Amino acid sequence: MAEVAPVAEHRTTAARAEERPHTSIREYIESLLVTVILALFGTTFVVQAFKIPSQSMEPTLLVGDHLLVNKFIFGGRDSWYEKLLPYRSVRRGDIIVFKFPFQDHPHYVKRVIGVPGDRIKIVDQQVYRNGQKLIEPYAVHDSATPYDAFLYNFPPAGHDDIISSMQPEWADQIFKYVQNGEIVVPPGNYFAMGDNRDHSWDSRYWGFVSREAIMGGPVVIYWSVQSSEEEYSERSFGGGIVSILRTLIEIPTRTRWNRMLRTVH
Fold first, then answer.
1. Can 54 be counted among the known catalytic residues?
2. pLDDT band at 24 (very low <50, low <70, confident <90, very high)
3. Helix or strand (DSSP H, E) at 231
4. Considering just the CA atoms, what is the radius of gyration of the chain in Å?
5. Exactly one of 110, 200, 203, 227 is catalytic; which is it?
6. Does the first or last residue of the chain, that is N or C, have fewer Cβ atoms within 10 Å of its Cβ?
7. Residue 21 CA: distances (Å) to CA of 29, 57, 146
């Protein structure tokens, strides 16, 4: 490619200095503030990046998938601007990212099985909604999983069927929502489950997802790297640095190129 020839330097250094525009500290600060505001607006209202640290949504989402989550999709908070912007309600089958209601409030990703008013039950590993058996091509089961009553039948029939893996608050409240052997989803809440049914800690064990906790829905996998749950559970500073360096070094071999830019549904 041809290079651009430099202009003959016949002007004096002083003249060039006088013609050069001066950028004040104030302009630098204003530019920085605008950049920060736009970045905050984007991550607050439009899109945010998340990574998948567990196998609860496999095979739909794998450990090591990095997602872009659309925070500009779900309405339902009765805000005045929802009528002006392209929001929609949370629907059955949507994959949602939300804040877990207990402990340190990490972000979870699950699939919506029941919306407000729906009646949900599980019989012999088959999910029924409002009396209809669901066709769920995305759901998988693992026959090698140790026995867990909630993997086969839900909700529990009585207090004697409460299991130790339930969140204590949910164990205390669950029977308020059980009617005729089905759990009824209350207003403003959703019943969510992982696609990897036998390896998912979900609404069966800790209750409903509040609409206020839902941040958005994943849109696309922008990067995917072969990883394990152990790598993502490493919380020590040194271990985290080692994991990051290893990932950077092994990007060419560990990247799942066939999952790049794959839409999520």
1. no
2. low
3. helix 229-233
4. 25
5. 110
6. N
7. 17, 55, 71
Could you give the number of structural domains in the chain?
A: 1
In a domain, 18, yes or no: no
pLDDT, tens digit (0-9, with 9 covering 90-100), for 213-252: 999 999 999 999 998 887 666 555 555 566 567 667 767 8
CATH number assigned to the domain comprising residue 68: 2.10.109.10
Position 187 in a domain: yes
Supply the range of the domain harboring residue 132. Answer: 47-263
Instruction: Tell whether 208 is covered by a domain.
Output: yes
Is 110 an active-site residue? yes
pLDDT by residue (tens digit) across 31-85? 555 444 444 444 445 788 899 999 999 999 999 999 999 988 886 666 665 666 6
Q: Beta partners for 126?
A: 123
182 and 220 Cβ atoms separated by less than 8 Å: no
Task: List residues bridging with 44 in a β-sheet.
Answer: none
Q: What pTM was computed for the model?
A: 0.78
Rounded Cα gap, residues 20 and 16, in angstroms = 6
Indicate whether 136 belongs to any domain: yes
The two structure tokens encoding residue 157: 């029939």
Residue 140 DSSP label: B
Query: Of 245, 246, 136, 249, which is closest to residue 197 (Cα–Cα)?
Result: 136
Q: Which residues contact 43 (CB under 8 A, 6 or more apart)?
A: none
Options 54, 56, 200, 227, the catalytic residue: 56
